[in-house]
């Protein structure tokens, strides 16, 4: 990938946020082809910045006054999980208060500090909201606000235990405050989906919606065990850009990488696209070694709408804080191009030669042929409406050519009466958003028919070339017919 100039910016993309021309930034290194790259001075926060810190990681920073403020996860040398406030002029060099953050809270049960970790900070209207994993009979989501990073007012916990990774959106959506979270368990949870919840007042949370879960192991293993939202989502004209961590359970333990997803602007539980390959994965010494090896855990992002630059702050190996850079338009492009990008829908097709029995069919008065129940084209049209332009796959689309069935049965076969999908219906599907139609049984029938015919009519034949040749020719005839006459896909490869 080349270095970006102003002219390279995607001018159609609108990014919401306050201008930050002086935010921490370093251009993509020469020869680097990655979508995101690390700051050369990483880690920006060492583990022993404070006199009694064992580690400082998984922390949140925001623009504040003429610099930056942050809430930091500090595990002390008792390995107690605490939160601390810090300030910085440049986002790289930080002054972190050695005293732990104390929340003001009018609710005695809630205000009693047990432990807190993995904070996020999000500016909503005129306040900065801190959400963190708060100990209350197990981990749940604590919520507090501040205007000055000196006094913090703690509200009710957002959810029942057990929950982690509570991340608020920077504005109301559909008239309500909004939060992503990840229900979990008491320990090192081996599962985890991202959910969306709404609140009229940042106290009562409900209308919970499933957003997304881990990927299949075969598709994207770095995110196949559990996932959780990272920094405050960034609003763009393409949707909310949400960085999220994904976990891969290996024989050595959990590995944490991160990727990104695009969520619908007004219904953020609808996922527009998500990364297949990760954006950042533990590779450097400070990510691969530390108190918990192989962890990149993003909790904050600074971005400049004008240039499209983003700096993601992430905890590395549960020990230090690192920064990674990227361009929002390139990240969005990557998310859209590499993610899960097709949908196999079920509208009445099924695998194999035995899709419908004659009893399930009606007789066409003109041709006398058996016609199976109509495919649910209304469902296909509904999916096309909801997901415009989204590629759709149709499985189980063999037509079970009756002449091949007849040949097989004529020469000793015993295929039961079976009806497939009429070819004109496949043509109709091919003209919609369906871009892949899976047909297998028809070629298997063609092959078997040709072989049976040779065996029955030339019983003295023993040369495989003499029956596999006709089998291949008959399959080829079938493929040509499907490509040209049925699917209309000839010349479109
Ligand atoms: C998670 C949280 C994170 C931590 C990660 C890796 O469950 O505890 O704070 O970074 O595990 O240890």
Bound molecules: beta-D-mannopyranose
Distance between the termini: 28 Å
Shape: elongated
Oligomer: single chain
If you compute it from the alpha carbons, what radius of gyration comes out, rounded to the nearest whole angstrom?
29 Å
Residue windows where pLDDT falls under 50 for at least 5 positions: none
For the sheet with most strands, the description reads:
5 strands, mixed
Q: What's the mean pLDDT score? A: 93
Strand order of the largest sheet: 6-10-9-8-7
- Assess the beta-strand content as a share of residues: 25-35%
Total number of β-strand segments?
Answer: 27
Query: How much helical structure, as a percent, in the residues?
Result: 10-25%
Helical stretch count?
8
Given helix and strand content, the structural type is alpha+beta
Descriptive account of the structure:
The protein has a five-stranded mixed β-sheet, with no helix packed on it. Strands 15, 16, 17, 18 and 19 form a five-stranded antiparallel β-sheet that branches. 18% of the residues lie in helices and 33% in strands. With 493 residues, it is of the alpha+beta class. Helix 5 runs parallel beside helix 7 and helix 7 (441-457) packs antiparallel against helix 8. It has helices at residues 108-111, 285-288, 328-338, 377-386, 402-410, 423-430, 441-457, 464-487; strands at residues 37-38, 53-64, 67-76, 81-88, 95-96, 103-104, 116-124, 127-135, 139-146, 152-154, 163-168, 177-183, 194-199, 206-212, 226-229, 234-236, 239-250, 253-263, 271-274, 296-304, 309-316, 320-327, 343-345, 362-363, 370-371, 392-394, 434-437. A hairpin with an 8-residue loop joins strand 11 (163-168) and strand 12 (177-183). The chain contains eight helices and 27 strands. Bound molecules: beta-D-mannopyranose. The site of beta-D-mannopyranose has 10 residues, from strand 7.
């Amino acid at each position: 990938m080349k270095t970006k100039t102003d002219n390279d910016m995607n001018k159609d993309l609108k990014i919401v946020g306050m201008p930050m021309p002086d935010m921490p930034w370093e251009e993509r290194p020469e020869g680097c082809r990655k979508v995101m790259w690390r700051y050369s001075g990483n880690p920006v926060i060492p583990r022993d910045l404070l006199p009694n810190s064992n580690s400082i990681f998984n922390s949140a920073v925001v623009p504040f006054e003429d610099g930056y403020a942050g809430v930091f996860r500090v595990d002390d040398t008792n390995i107690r999980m605490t939160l601390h406030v810090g300030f910085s002029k440049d986002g790289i060099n930080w002054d972190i208060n050695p005293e732990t953050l104390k929340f003001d809270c009018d609710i005695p049960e809630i205000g009693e500090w047990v432990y807190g970790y993995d904070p996020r900070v999000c500016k909503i209207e005129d306040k900065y909201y801190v959400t963190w994993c708060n100990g209350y009979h197990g981990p749940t989501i604590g919520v507090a606000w501040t205007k000055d990073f000196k006094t913090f007012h703690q509200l009710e916990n957002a959810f029942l235990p057990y929950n982690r990774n509570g991340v608020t959106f920077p504005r109301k959506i559909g008239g309500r405050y909004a939060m992503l979270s990840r229900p979990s368990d008491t320990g090192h949870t081996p599962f985890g989906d991202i959910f969306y919840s709404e609140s009229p007042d940042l106290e009562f949370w409900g209308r919970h919606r499933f957003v997304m879960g881990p990927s299949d192991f075969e598709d994207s293993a770095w995110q196949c065990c559990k996932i959780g939202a990272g920094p405050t989502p960034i609003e763009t004209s393409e949707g909310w850009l949400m960085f999220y961590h994904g976990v891969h359970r290996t024989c050595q333990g959990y590995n944490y990488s991160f990727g990104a997803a695009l969520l619908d602007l007004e219904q953020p539980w609808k996922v527009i696209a998500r990364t297949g390959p990760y954006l950042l994965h533990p590779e450097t010494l400070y990510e691969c070694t530390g108190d918990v090896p192989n962890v990149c855990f993003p909790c904050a992002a600074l971005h400049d709408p004008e240039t499209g630059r983003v700096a993601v702050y992430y905890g590395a190996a549960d020990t230090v804080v690192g920064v990674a850079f990227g361009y929002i338009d390139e990240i969005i492009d990557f998310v859209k191009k590499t993610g899960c990008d097709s949908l196999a829908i079920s509208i009445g097709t099924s695998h194999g030669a035995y899709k419908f029995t004659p009893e399930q069919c009606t007789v066409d008065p003109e041709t006398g042929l058996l016609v199976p129940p109509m495919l649910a084209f209304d469902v296909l049209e509904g999916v096309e409406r909801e997901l415009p332009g989204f590629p759709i796959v149709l499985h189980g689309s063999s037509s079970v050519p009756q002449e091949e069935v007849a040949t097989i049965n004529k020469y000793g076969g015993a295929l039961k009466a079976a009806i497939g999908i009429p070819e004109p219906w496949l043509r109709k599907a091919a003209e919609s958003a369906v871009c892949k139609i899976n047909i297998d049984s028809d070629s298997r029938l063609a092959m078997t028919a040709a072989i049976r015919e040779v065996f029955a009519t030339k019983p003295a034949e023993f040369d495989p070339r003499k029956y596999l040749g006709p089998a291949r020719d008959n399959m080829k005839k079938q493929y040509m017919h499907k490509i040209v006459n049925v699917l209309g896909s000839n010349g479109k490869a």
